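Retry 2 of 3 after timeout on previous attempt. Resubmitting structure tokens to design endpoint.
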């Protein structure tokens, strides 16, 4: 998208808005039922929050109606119906529903977009009936936010502080500012490296970024842009060779997501304007291309463009050669052109799936500790699963010396309550396990040294999760593995993997010791299983394994048999 000059930007966004409108209007329920005015997402269900986000974009289309081709009367009717549905669906205490559950935070998320739409309607003195209903919805939603609490780290900014800053401009109230001050007293959880460290999630980090932009505008304090600038600098160094954002280290449900967006055009555009740094212009353009549609931001993009209409600086190249260790979140990123390596660990338990969602399920750390992009091949993860234990989950990562990285960790036996015995005695289970991984970046690839020991487990399985479909061969005809499939390999031979027009070698794997299906659920919910095929190699304890991943430029037309000669 040519975004360097403002005259080119508006028509492109208007065209996307018009396409969104053409797609969305037919999805509106118009049957006169309790769902009338809502917008379907499938499954015969209509979410209040989705309808509220959609209404914000309908209002943006109304504001931009002279820039797009639309039936104005039909658009106004759609707005009125959607507004009526949201008021019916909103709980009288102000909460709104998502996935069938009421929450004050779901109402909070919708306030910035609808508040901005309300401001534009009020300034133009348009749609007075809609404004009256919007005012009722917004004030009730703000009451729910004031009385509620954040459930996750990003809720403080995107579902509480930013929304209340918007409401406080419309209807000033000390309750709103007191709530904002209370959350700001926590400190903004974006560290010096630019990582929103509590969730480590590209998607949720961007939600927090959007909230910071809103706080800047409504509180008049540009210091809220500082963490956004730091985070986008981090994002620049997490863009993969295929243009997606690395999400292998996320603590949230975007973990292992292929084609994960590197951010939003709205955020990158604003930071490019703020800093004058053309790399952020390039990031904005990449976000636009990757999104393939108009995103549902907290603030609709057309209204954000109206608010900050200045052009972005001229585009500059994204970084493609670097080595960065982000110590606070225990993530290492190394990229050399078309090769990109991510190593990750978790040194603490202070994240969502430990503290909230999984209080009894055992250690929850980074079992997706290894992630490699090589041209068309993506090794999404390498896992080591011990019988009766878990997947290998490193707790620490360090650069031992140039090109040499060390990860280690372990689990201790847990305390088991004898719930069937009076007094519920506690028994310490001797089921401990320690392990380490040393990786060396070389001119031809990556050397891997895995070590682990357990006096309790006899067997383990080494798993290569590779984005499918792909082909592999050890000593015969190539076999194809589709996403979601698992295949045992024989080991003891050169392993060649091909995907697209690329290939790599894995050398040094031992012969498969068994085919015992040792399976452990992912330590944090991940998309990896759905997008990858898995190659399994049976091992026995103790493990002292060295193998090499060779990133050679193999001729894709050369037969695999010739490669073995």
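Retry 2 succeeded. Sequence:
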């Amino acid at each position: 998208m040519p975004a360097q000059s403002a005259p080119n930007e508006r028509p492109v966004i208007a065209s996307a808005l018009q396409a969104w409108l053409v797609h969305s209007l037919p999805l509106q329920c118009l049957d006169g039922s309790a769902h009338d005015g809502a917008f379907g997402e499938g499954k015969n269900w209509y979410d209040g929050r989705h309808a509220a986000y959609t209404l914000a974009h309908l209002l943006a289309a109304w504001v931009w109606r002279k820039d797009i081709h639309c039936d104005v009367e039909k658009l106004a009717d759609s707005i009125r119906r959607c507004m009526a549905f949201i008021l019916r669906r909103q709980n009288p205490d102000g909460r709104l529903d998502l996935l069938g559950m009421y929450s004050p935070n779901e109402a909070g998320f919708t306030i910035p977009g609808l508040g901005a739409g309300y401001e534009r309607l009020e300034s133009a003195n348009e749609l007075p009936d809609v404004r009256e209903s919007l005012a009722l919805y917004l004030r009730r939603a703000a009451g729910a936010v004031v009385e509620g609490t954040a459930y996750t780290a990003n809720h403080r900014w995107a579902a509480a502080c930013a929304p209340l800053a918007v409401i406080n401009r419309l209807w000033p109230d000390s309750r709103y500012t007191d709530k904002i001050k209370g959350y700001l007293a926590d400190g903004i959880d974006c560290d010096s490296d630019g990582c929103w460290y509590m969730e480590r999630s590209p998607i949720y980090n961007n939600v927090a970024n959007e909230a910071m932009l809103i706080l800047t505008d409504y509180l008049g304090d540009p210091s809220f842009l500082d963490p956004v600038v730091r985070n986008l600098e981090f994002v620049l160094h997490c863009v993969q060779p295929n243009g997606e954002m690395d999400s292998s280290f996320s603590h949230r449900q975007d973990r292992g997501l292929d084609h994960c967006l590197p951010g939003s055009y709205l955020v990158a555009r604003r930071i490019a304007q703020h800093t004058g740094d053309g790399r952020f212009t390039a990031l904005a353009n990449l976000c636009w291309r990757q999104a393939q549609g108009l995103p549902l931001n907290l603030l609709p993009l057309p209204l954000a463009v109206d608010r900050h209409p200045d052009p972005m600086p001229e585009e500059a190249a994204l970084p493609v050669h670097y080595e960065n260790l982000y110590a606070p979140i225990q993530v290492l990123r190394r990229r050399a052109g078309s090769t990109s390596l991510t190593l990750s660990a978790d040194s603490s338990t202070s994240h969502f799936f430990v503290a909230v969602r999984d209080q009894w399920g055992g250690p929850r750390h980074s079992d997706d500790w290894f992630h490699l992009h090589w041209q068309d091949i993506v090794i999404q993860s390498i896992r080591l699963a011990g019988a009766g234990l878990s997947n290998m989950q490193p707790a620490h990562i360090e650069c031992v010396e140039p090109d040499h990285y060390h990860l280690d960790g372990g689990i201790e036996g847990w305390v088991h309550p004898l719930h069937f015995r009076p007094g519920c005695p506690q028994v310490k289970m001797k089921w401990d396990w320690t392990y380490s991984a040393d990786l060396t970046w070389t001119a031809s690839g990556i050397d891997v040294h895995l070590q682990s020991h357990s006096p309790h487990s006899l067997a383990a399985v080494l798993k290569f999760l590779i984005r499918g479909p792909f082909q592999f061969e050890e000593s015969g005809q190539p076999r194809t593995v589709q996403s979601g499939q698992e295949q045992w390999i024989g080991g003891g031979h050169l392993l060649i993997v091909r995907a697209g027009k690329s290939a790599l070698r894995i050398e040094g794997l031992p012969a498969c010791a068994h085919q015992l299906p040792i399976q452990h659920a992912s330590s944090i919910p991940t998309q990896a299983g759905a997008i990858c095929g898995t190659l399994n190699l049976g091992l026995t304890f103790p493990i002292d394994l060295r193998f090499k991943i060779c990133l050679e430029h193999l001729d894709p037309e050369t037969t695999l048999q010739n490669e073995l000669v």
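Attempt log closed. The first strand starts at residue 96 and ends at 98.
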